[in-house]
Input
Amino acid sequence: MAIVGMGPRGLSVLERLVARLTEAPVAGAVRIWTFEPGEQGAGRIWRTSQPHWFAMNTVAGEVSVYSGSPDGGPHRAGAGPSLYEWLAEHPDPRWSALGLSDYAPRPVYGEYLTAAYRAIVANAPANVHVLPVSARVDRVERTGGRFTVTAYSGRFALAVDKVILTTGHPCNAPDAVNQRFLAHAEDNDNLRYVLGDSAAEMPLDAIAAGSEVGIIGLGLTFFDVVAALTAGRGGVFTSDDDGVLRYRPSGKEPRIIAGSRSGLPMLARGRNQKASTYRYQARFATTAALAAARQRAQATHGSPQLDFRGDVLPLLQREVEHTYYRTLVRRRQNREAAEQFAARHLDIAHDPALVDKLLAEYGIADAQRIDLDRMARPFAGVEFDSPEHFHRVVTDLLRLDVAEAVQGNLAGPLKAALDILRDLRGSVRTAVDFGGLRGESHRDDFLGAFNPVNTMLSAGPPAFRVEQTCALIEAGVLVVVGPALQVGCEPDGFLLSSPQVRGSGRVVPTLIDARIPRPDLHADASPLTGQLLADGLISEHVNSDPVTGDWFATGGLAVARAPFHVIDAAGNADPDLYALGIPTENQRWFTQIGNGRPGPLTGFHVDADAIAADVLTSLPAYATTGVLL
Output
């Protein structure tokens, strides 16, 4: 078999394959070829050679690529350490200060992943041969009943029985907007436009000290780019006598001009207070509630597909409010009162009038209402007299956000509530994945409206990144243009402006797109993707409404449900070709997760095991149990 792409997702499949082959040995040789042009285990995104100022946004104690905990034996498939445990076993000054709830540098996670790959390979059964190939796969073609996998620009060809596609983040061909900016830069030697990608892959060293650079997007890549251009160039963050973080420039920084649709940098995650084994039990967005909603949809619409805004979002809203109110009661009174409140709120959460009475009874009538849209887009419809006015408002808001984050994701009412959006990802997938929503609602209500709000509020950076952003704004190193960012071409550069901030326009010679490229089969610049599409071996997932006939082409690679056989151009599931992770985004949701968690298994390992179990059923001597080992 061949695993194409050996980042975290490919590594998870390898880990479950070897774990099953260890538990249930087979006669004869099994050969697993792992194709990865970067580092085996780390892939491109987590490569160990990237600078240490790029940080993860998941705490060390919540990260594990192994599907089982250490058992006293060697690290191996099915029994290995979490990232935090591995760091403790490998003392190093670079990470000696990292605790369970701290955020490791990205290259450190890469070291953990490459070490896991080596441990899995070294401790595999003697008849299981893991064969690394340091190359990008060019083609995968059907040849009779098998596949031919070609690499090294056609100089290497291999016949295999099974292929698993775990190719990770795409590099897309420039779209019309990208092409316009690229052409503008090509017409002037003094201009530069950098396409969206991982910050570690961007030519940031070429940006001159003292120059001005524009950034489109205020998400996670924005924080990485800013870190590289400031702390990565010798700038220092220090706290003043009042405990306020300040930035001391090195003189090597450019001036950074940034903006986005919301005009607000991504909000911070709450300080982690949850154990690695913590699992939230939904109260409203339950499997039963979603099944009942499908029954109602079938009865009224003639299809079990859900309307996200009408059927799903209210359940998520109630979950968030329930956690917020319960945590607030606990803070103001005690745990017993909070549990009493929670029990009563469960029964009346659907009735706003009864909820208001309950809030008054428990002394929290003054509690702010959770408006997710307004929290993620606080500047909608607001105008500002000057950039300075906008900066005062945005830094005040970000400092308040940091103060909320410091309270924690269990003890702080607001961040505890927003963290529930992370905990509810499984419920959202139950509602959304595999055409669970009507096409129009999937495109507009979910991907267009909810997904960016959810990302802004629950998938953000550590609080220290937001605090650093405030310090950089106040030091004059960073200018946030404002909401509804507009980018245009001027003879001497790229113009960034906000129609809601008077005098915000700035022309810069360098423009960086800090938005992560979206998975889109037809935009993917990979020769492999183009060949698979042209040959009809893969197809795009199209979400269609069987009643109205409406449809939505998602851009994601179409797969069947677990074990995720790829759907070909004729609509058939190929029993020997699988796909997992980011290429399947939009048929499945939030596939960019690059790790599992210690303790009870999450979808990261369950998905990988589904493929491993199915792959191995083709071995005559293999008897699968159908469950995780």
